[in-house]
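User: Here's a chain of 97 residues. Predict its fold as tokens.
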Amino acid sequence: MHCGKKIDENLLICPHCGTAQNQVTKKDYGGIGWGILGYFVPMAGIILFFIWKNEKPKTAKALLIGAIIGFIVSALIYAFSPSILKTLFSFMMKLNR
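Assistant: Prediction complete.
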């Protein structure tokens, strides 16, 4: 806005005076903290993935990967917990004899 006229914020160059506009860049680091959040709260990870997939793609990807791993680990624990508990119970009963 060198000339002072209002223009669309998405324009890179002012159509009136030809001056380049200052663009605010959003930093997207996709840190491991977001992946950990997705792991422990998979639904939040999936929801935030769909909210941020266009404006913060690295962060969205970290959330989605964390959520997928969280779901897989939870499913495996759920699937194998009866057999693990049965084995543990049998072992404890043998110790008590």
